[in-house]
Every structure is written in C-alpha cells, then in structure tokens.
Design a protein that fits this description.
Number of strands: 7
Helix content: 40-55%
CATH superfamily: Phosphoenolpyruvate-binding domains
Number of domains: 1
CATH class: Alpha Beta
Largest sheet: 7 strands, parallel
Number of helices: 11
Length: 241
C-alpha cells in the first residue's frame, strides 16, 4: 500500500521537499519525479484542477514516486472525498477559522475511528481490491496528511480551540487572504498581517505543533518557470544586441 513520503520524513525528523503546481500537467509531474522531490501539491483552490485531471495526475505521481497532495477549494466532506478517492494523500483545507471547521476538515480526511471518511472503491482505495479492508483503512489513516490554513482574523479568537482538534498535522498561513481579512487588500507585508502570523505561529509552537513552512520545503513551480523564462529572455536580448 502507498506510503506518504511527507509523513515518513516528518516522523523520522527529516524535511520533505516538494513542489506546488497551480496548472495541471502530467508531463511536468513526471519530470519532477525524475528530479527526486518527495511530494507535489496541486492547488485546486486557485488552479483549474478537475476530478478527472486529479485522477490522471495522481496516477503519474504514483508512477514516479511523488506523494500527491492537494489544496482543496472547500472543506465539505464530499469535496475532500473526491480528491482522496483519486489517490491524494494529503489535504490542505482553506480558511480554517474555528474549532468546528478544524474538526470538519480532520473528520473528512480519515476513516473511522479517527474520522468519518466514506469508504469507496476508486483508484485511491485500489479499486476496492484489498486483502483486508480493515488493514487498508488503518494504514491509510496513518498515511494521510492534514494541513489547516489559518488565514482569517477570526482565527485569533479561536486559536486555542483550533489547536485542540486531533487530526490536524500541520498549519499554514496565507498572507494575501489575511490582509483582506483585516481590510488591507493587496498588503500582505502590512505590520498587522505580520503580527497576526507571528501570534499564530507562537500559539502553534506552544501547542507543540508546527507550521508547514517550518516542517517542509515547498517550491512554487510557477516561480521556477517564470524566473527561468525571465533569465533566458534577458540573456537572449543581450545576445541579440
């Protein structure tokens, strides 16, 4: 059965390294796998990732040794289930601003007794061809990574309750949305945003937990491509002149 490289590395005290993709491409996933990255995170909150594309992307990721994760568009159980049933092994849930939402996210990601994920027979569950369904469910629960995004002002009033929820493995920030939540659109570096992020990080650390950015290295592929393209274009212009 599948092993989540992010979970394995975190459990052994190592730092997993991965790539975030906002544009679906099976070819890019295959190429990334040859480099040696541990995981690929599909940004399905902001990118054009349909369920059938996720199915193909997970298939390719599995074939090249990449653990597929996804930032989902919402934390409704049916939404999360469709990603998990494709083979996604980690869920990043946006706008977790209360204890109730944190529990909703955690419950949707794992089977009973740790959650309330529905048991299907898609490719993520090996098309239902398991020698032991009980062992499959227990193993899968141990391999799912759950990340909660704390990106709303309301988090400040709910932080203790959020951090008390079992089943959230890492926490993530989101400066742009935090800024908007403060009524500061387009100002992710504003002192209020930075103070919010420090307050949240301190609370997470006091609870003995980690922010995703402290536990993993995550590189945005659009930055890689655009930086390389700008460098190549600048070099070509110099050569042409």
């Amino acid at each position: 059965m599948r092993i989540n490289k992010v979970v394995s590395k975190l459990n052994s005290g190592n730092t997993p390294i991965g790539i975030t993709m906002k544009v679906p491409s099976t070819s890019l996933v295959e190429m990334l796998g040859t480099v040696g990255f541990d995981f690929v995170l599909f940004d399905a909150e902001h990118g054009p990732f349909t369920v059938d594309l996720i199915d193909d992307l997970c298939m390719v990721a599995d074939s090249v040794g990449l653990t597929p994760l996804a930032r989902v568009p919402d934390i409704q159980a049916p939404t999360i289930l469709r990603f998990l049933d494709r083979g996604i092994m980690g869920i990043m849930g946006p706008h977790i601003s209360s204890q109730a939402k944190a529990k909703q996210l955690a419950d949707a990601c794992r089977y009973v007794p740790e959650g309330h994920r529905s048991l299907g027979s898609g490719r993520g569950s090996y098309y239902g061809r398991n020698e032991s369904t009980t062992e499959y469910m227990a193993h899968t629960n141990s391999q799912i990574l759950v990340i909660a995004q704390l990106e709303d002002v309301a988090v400040l009033d709910e932080i203790d309750g959020i951090l008390s929820v079992d089943g959230i493995d890492l926490f993530n920030s989101g400066a742009q949305d935090i800024a908007q939540s403060f009524g500061l659109p387009g100002q992710p570096t504003h002192p209020k945003v930075q103070e919010f992020q420090k307050t949240v990080r301190d609370a997470v650390n006091r609870a003995g937990k980690q922010m995703a950015e402290d536990a993993t290295i995550n590189i945005r592929i659009d930055d890689l491509i655009l930086d390389a393209a700008e460098e190549a274009f600048s070099a070509a212009k110099l050569s042409a002149n």
